[in-house]
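SAMPLE LOG
Freezer: B-3
Tube label: C17
Construct: single chain, 219 aa
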Amino acid sequence: METTKKVTLDGSSECIQYLSTVDKRLAKAISMVGPITYQPHEDSYSFLVHEIIEQMLSTKVSKKMFERLTILCNGDVTPIAVSLLTDDQIRGIGISQSKVSYIRNLTYAITKGELLLDALGDLPDKTIMDLLCSIRGIGSWTAKMYLIFVLDRQDVLPFEDFAFLQGYKWLYKTEDISRKSVEKRCRKWKPYSSIAARYMYKALDLGFTKNEFHLYKDA
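STRUCTURE (predicted):
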């Protein structure tokens, strides 16, 4: 399988130039964060399993659980490896029974050919969302994380995501995180909503959101 190339976003990137033009607050955040380099996830199945585990949990806790699952799978979380595990084995790493069933649903859909992950990259965002959300246990949040972090789709607004909303509240100095409000305010980000979201995540990771955002104050 061909290795996914790393992507670097900086002042020379068309998307960054566009976002910096249409949103002065985001432009300031981008200047604070600086260049971003990332690599889309290559293993679609293990990514989805990880996201199912992470639902309603902290990143730290979910990471530990996924590490335990990886050990159970002898280092590689694949549909076949997970299929060979019992429910008790999976629950033993701290995963709830409901999430065990969600992982089973995903695994069954893949092993039976009902969900062809390799083919999703050729489909429109909405179609991918519909296909993934048809599997019990995968909702809008998980599907959007897949679009952004696996398929590197450029125009996905993750208004359901807590980490994104933390960055959003910091950037716009607001407590109104209703879907209607977020979509209205972020409409100007199109067609690069995912790129803007990446900067919200990075601002959070770098600790910028712990301090009040100042548009005209030096970073």
